[in-house]
Each structure stands twice: as structure tokens, then as C-alpha cells.
Amino acid sequence: MKTVKTVMVMGGALLCKMVAGLIAVKLCAEYVGIENFGLTGQISSMLAIVTLLSSGGVAVGLAKVYSEQAGDRKEVDQWIDAAKLLCVAAGGGLVLVFLGARSYIEDVVLGNSSYSTAIFVAVVAAIVPIGISGISQGILNGNQRSGVYSTALVIGSVVGIAGFLLVSHLFGASGAMIGIIWMPVAQSLSFLFLAQRLQPISGIPSISPVNIDRARFLGKFGLLSIAAGSTMPLAYIYVRLIVQANVGTEGLSLWQATVRLSEAYTQLPMLMLSVIFFAKFASKSGHKIDWLEVRKTYLFITALMIVIGLSVYALRNYLVEILFTAEFSQVAELLVWQLTGDLLRMMSYVGTTILAARGFLKTGISAEFLQGGLFILVSGVLIPKFGQLGPFVAYIVTYGSYLLFTIMALLYLHARSKNHATINC
User: Fold this and answer.
1) Domain coordinates of the chain in residue numbers?
2) Environment class of residue 63 by beta-carbon count within 10 Å: exposed (0-12), middle (13-18) or buried (19+)?
């Protein structure tokens, strides 16, 4: 009952965020047209990388530590201080990397378009606020404060879309591109504001040996989060270049529009896994895995995705008509392929969520590199052969394989726990 109530609360907040995002997608389609819509995908991938690397993946490690040490305020304060140190180091390093790679990012990743410089400057400016918000998300996740998290989503969505509407109205297509970057920044500021009420975050971190060791621990634990969050965005950047080379900018924009819809309707299961189920399994990391709970999690996420998939498929023509322009009508025909891959992806993420929560970092990181490498490899083979359907088929093959890998990892873990129980008897 509690899980159902949580789903309803978070579902309402995510609906607000989804509506804001879809309004932005609609306006982008109108402002930039089908020729340049593919650029929005590159922006999203860059922001995803910034979100993970700018904070050193601190949200995952801090959520685990916080859920275990919530009763010790002094201990939590010390971990927060270490998290700030990690964010400063990671964010500063990322700014230097972006500045050093500016020519490559503007000319290759962003296609040397008329928007490249404005996009680059805006993304670099977003690194600091997005990085610091990793601490706030770790606090909210560790506390399992889904109500506060949902409030932050609503506030960030409203402020984000308001800013998007303003800059797109003032600066047209360039403003729409900048507005896409502003929206996650507004969300980050919202998380930071509400988390500050639960746990003070402000202040300069101390550079002490103990603090450095704690920061290293958080960074090490955040490696899975970094691998999970940055591997696929990097893969998508490369795959978009393959799509554009084989089916042109219009074909890229059609695929990107389908991916945009996917990002909207998969927000709820993704948030349930990262906020609810990760904290649930992490809080019991010192005990044996509850395999009944594992099965329930798989069934819950699968059922949720089936309901979402059937709803989206039934409304596909209306969704495309409402959210895009007439140029994007073919998206309705492509959605069934995307929905199939999304079901496999969400099911596979159940396994990686449990592995991460239980501390199996090497297995989890290997799985993330597997999905990214496989997606690039399969795309390189299938896109020239299947054209427009190539990236969709590659997506399905990648996550079908990834699901098998995560299930096998959990089965191995299950068998090992049974063997240990037999030995102890």
C-alpha cells in the first residue's frame, strides 16, 4: 500500500515534469525544425554526462551512507563535507576538460552549427549548479523522502519551463536551445533548496586527510553511477553521428523525437528504481538478499512498463500530432520498436539497481560498459543495413543482451548465497 501511495505521489510530480519537458520538445520542434532537432539529443547527452561527472557520482554513495548513518547527525555532517570536497574536485576537473575539448565539441559533436557556441557556453555554466545538486539528491534519496523529492520535481519543472518560455520567446531558436539547458539547472536548484532544509550543505569543505579518504570512498562507490550515467550518453553521441551519416539529418531527427518521447514516459520507472528501490535494497546491505522482494521488484517494474507501453501505443498518433509538427508524423510508426526496447531496458535496470545497492561495483560497472559498447557495435553494423530502423533494432538487441547479463549476475549471487548457507550449516 505504501509503495502504491508513493507511486501516486511521485507519478503526479513526474507528470508535471513530463508536461514541462514535452512543452519544451514541442516548441523546439517548431523553432528549429526537423533539420536541427537532432541537436537536442546531443545537448541531452552532454547534460547527462555533466550531471554524473560534475558531482563525481556522489548521489549514489551518499544515499547509501546516509541511509546507514541517518541516526548519527555528526557522522552525517562529516560525510556531507566530504561530498562537497568531491563535487568541487570533480566539477572543476570537468570544466577544464570541456574547455580543452571545446573545438571538438563545437565542430564534431554539435556539427559546427550556428548554435554550437551558445550551447557550449551554457553547458559549461551549468556544471557547477548541477554538480552541487548531486549532494542534495543523495540526502533526499538516503532519507527516502519521496514527498520532498516530488515537491522539488514540481518546483523545478515550473521554474524550468517558465525560463524556457522566456528565453525562447526573446531569442527564438537559439533561446530554445539554451532553454533546454536551463531546465535541468532549475531542477538542480530546486533540489538544493529543499535538501538544505533537511541537512545544511552550504560552506567550504575542509581539506583534511580524513575528508579526502571519505571523498575517495564516495567517489569509488559513485563509479557505478558514473559508468551507468555517462556510458550510454557517450554511446548515444557516437550513434547519432552514425545515424546522421547513413540516413541524414531528417532521419536523425525522427529517431531523436522517438527517444524524446521515451525519455518522458520512462521517468516514473527510472525514478522508482533510483529513489525507492535502491534505498530499500541499500538499507539492508548488511543482511541476506530478500529474493521475494527481488521478484516483486521485477514484477512491479514489468507491470508498470506494460501499462505505460500500452497507453503510449494506443495514443501514439495523438501524441505525435500534439507534441511535434507534421514533419514528424513517421514517429508514430516507429514507437512500437522503441517501446519494445524500453521494456527490456527497464527490466535490466532492476538487476543493476540491486547490484549497486548491494555494493557489487565491479559487476555493475562491467554491465554498464557492456551496454554502451554493445550499442555502438551493433549500431555500426545494423544502421547501414536497416537504415531508419537500424538504431531501434540495435537498441532492442543491446538491452535484450543486457537483461540476460543482469539476470545471470543475480542468479550467480543467489547460488553463491545458497552455497554459503549450506557450508554454514
Assistant:
1) 9-221, 233-425
2) buried
